[in-house]
Amino acid sequence: MLSDLPGHPMMWVLILTEIVTFGLLFITFAVTGAVHPEVFAAGRAQLDPTLGGMNTIILITSGWLAALAVEACAAERRRRTRLLVAGAILLGCAFAAVKIAEYAAKRRMGIGLETDMFFTLYFLLTGFHLMHVVLGIVILAAVALDASLESLKTGTAFWHMVDLVWVVMFPLVYLVG
Amino acid sequence: MRIVGDATRTWALLVLLTLLSMVTGHAGFHGLAGSGIVLAACVVKGRSMLMDFLKLRDGPAGWRALFAGWLVLIAASAWIAPALSVLRN
């Protein structure tokens, strides 16, 4: 059954593990928010949803370029494939830069990991995701060098998982409550 | 040859739904309805990414169901907070 999925089957085992881990973190975040609505409303009011939204569009566009790269690779257009993967990587770096700028702004406001329950979970969730973005960038760079269709499908599958997790995290953390 | 493929159509849909979610959040349209719109958009976005970026459309139905279930479970759990606040008032 794993062999019917795009890319290396072991990557799908990893993706499944990540989806379960992030799923548990999301449910923990949602349930804690339901138990402490005032703390979460006050915390959320100090976030910048425009930056969060901007990062969503950046990552979605990166995922789109990665998907186009797989199509280009299947059509044996090597130069186009490399350019598209490079674009996906650059946008991944832009996401990380925006996230770091966001953390720096919070630090200037005197907000940290131990401010309250909301911000502990905020930094835990977004920080854990940021680590995956960095790992995803490394994986994309590695598969771009190799440039075989199977490697590219494997690498982009991980990248789409990172993208999917953020698309779910953005409304949960920044918007809903 | 198609000018716009599945991935490009999905990208446009994802950007549109993200902007809709941002406007909904920005307008202060919270509560059950506002959260419902944002979370429904999130489920549609997640599903589109799985189908057209990850190409699960051509993959096993079991995996599609698993990911769809994951999306719906997360969205439902995120809806608990606004639902509880309605019940409290």
UniProtKB/TrEMBL annotation, chain A:
Instruction: Write out the entry's keywords from A to Z.
Output: Membrane, Transmembrane, Transmembrane helix
Under SUPFAM superfamilies, the record lists: Cytochrome c oxidase subunit III-like
Q: What is its main location?
A: membrane
Note the topology in the membrane: Multi-pass membrane protein
Keyword Transmembrane helix among UniProt keywords: yes
**Which family is annotated?**
Belongs to the cytochrome c oxidase subunit 3 family.
UniProt name for this protein: Cytochrome c oxidase subunit 3 family protein
The organism is Microvirga arsenatis
Automatic annotation (TrEMBL), chain B:
Which superkingdom does the taxonomy of this entry point to? Answer: Bacteria
The membrane-spanning stretches of this chain are: 64-87
Q: Which InterPro entries match?
A: Cyt_c_oxidase_su4_prok
Taking the first listed entry, what is the main subcellular location of this protein, grouped into a coarse class?
membrane
Membrane-related topology note: Multi-pass membrane protein
Q: Where in the cell is it found?
A: Cell membrane
Q: What is this protein called?
A: Cytochrome C oxidase subunit IV
Origin organism is Microvirga arsenatis
